[in-house]
Structures
1.
Amino acid sequence: MKEFTENPYIIRSLYILPDEEPVVKYLNGTEAQMEELVHGKIASAGIEEGVCVIHNALSELLKMTENRVIDGTQFYGPMIVVSFDNVGNIISLTEDDAEYFAEQFALKK
């Protein structure tokens, strides 16, 4: 897999739609792009140190399709998994993290 770590404007993430397998998606990091991907205003929830889920802030109220349960919290609609730095800026998942979370959020058979 080609690495883009030298370019801070290309962010490796996992994009997870309900009832679909996670896919690696490269983001430009803009709020507008993330809002388009989650179909509305974004919110984030930390899932591990330095890793968070970006999701639609109103997904449950909008009755979006159930997606994944993470640490007992049900997420609805599309979600994006990214890393963040010590001041809260979104950064790329490492290749290892992308593979790890793709396995964690794979559909259970």
2.
Amino acid sequence: MKLNQDKTIMTGVVKRVGNWRHTVPLAKKHEAMKIDYRGMVYAIQNGLKPSDGINRFMITELGKHLTELGERFYSGDIKVVDEFLQLYCIADEQRKEVIKQREQQVQA
């Protein structure tokens, strides 16, 4: 059993906070080629001109956000995926549909 800095107890992939328990969903282990995102971020940054300051900043932030995504997800915070998708405007229409469906369920 491992006690994290935020005083949560990690037992395998189950996170316990008080009486709350959540299992982190895991996919099958990826066995094919893997890509280290940090190398990609570094390569993109080095390919930009010094005058592309805002793009350099955004790429740096993307790298930080990817790191945070992984750390928080594997710590049991699965809502971080939704935060990330919202931040980068990914699947906005699908998210609106999920919200619409939830609202309809509440009204039923």
3.
Amino acid sequence: MSWGQLRWTVERFHQDIKQELGADKYQGRTWRGFHHHLSAVMLAHAFVAERRLEAGKDREDSASFTEVVRQIVRESAVQRLMENHGFDRPKARKVAVDMLREYSDW
């Protein structure tokens, strides 16, 4: 692997954790809190990266990082609607997608 490829990989990592996982959103005042925040961001990144690799096994192109994050958020919303409000899966999926489109940039 060349230095140019390595630099691109690091830059892409930083872009993903800032734009998708909120690495740059920490507003605390302590070094310890900053480390806790970044630890959670790194753990989330590892989880999303693993899901992304799993999704790519079934098809030629792997899903984008943003696409996988959205799938995880959508599935989490569906699960909560099913558990907390007794929706069936199709209705929960429709409501979750509608809510996410209404309250975010989806």
4.
Amino acid sequence: MTARELHEPQGPHDDEDARSGAPGGCVADEAVRLSALAVNVSVPEDLQWTDERRGETFRLTSITVRLLPDDSLASKAYGRPVAGGRGGYVSFAVPRTPELDALISGAASAASARWAHHRGLS
């Protein structure tokens, strides 16, 4: 799904109301400038990996996936030191494997569906 499709009205509002900011609609596209959308996804245990930074080994257990303004995806991995403790908040590159690519793509698709059907602020 592209960023443009994410902006397309979905649900009970018609196109005109949703784009004009009319009561019941969304704010006009020109008034909202998204720099990126992000979602965090847990990495299933069988897909987790380790990487080293500053002499410390980390087990990578989560990925932050961002939808960039050009509709491409970017990802960074995060985790905890294998030796224990908190460790620093350090990002790691996500290796390109078919399984991790599918996880990232699936997370982006699931997030877009959830964003499209949000229920507003609670």
